Amino acid sequence: MDKQQLVEIANTVMPFGKYKGRVLIDVPEEYLLWFARKDEFPAGKLGDLMQLTLVIKSEGLEGLVKPLKRSEE
After folding, report:
1. What's the whole-model pTM score?
2. What per-residue confidence (pLDDT) applies to 34?
3. How many CB atoms are located within 10 Å of the residue 24 CB?
4. Taxonomically, which superkingdom (predicted)?
């Protein structure tokens, strides 16, 4: 995990599903766990970022990511 991935997690918008429109760091941990249990993270970069987001949330490290969010001005 590098800083660029943390910035992407803080600013990548969920493109589908119940939490469409939220940035990944704001997607609830339970939703990410659902993907993990079903072993159905999307393929590619989005799935990779979702898996990293789950690790960050499960380790209580959201405080490292939230300051990297772009302001919505």
Report:
1. 0.91
2. 97
3. 23
4. Bacteria
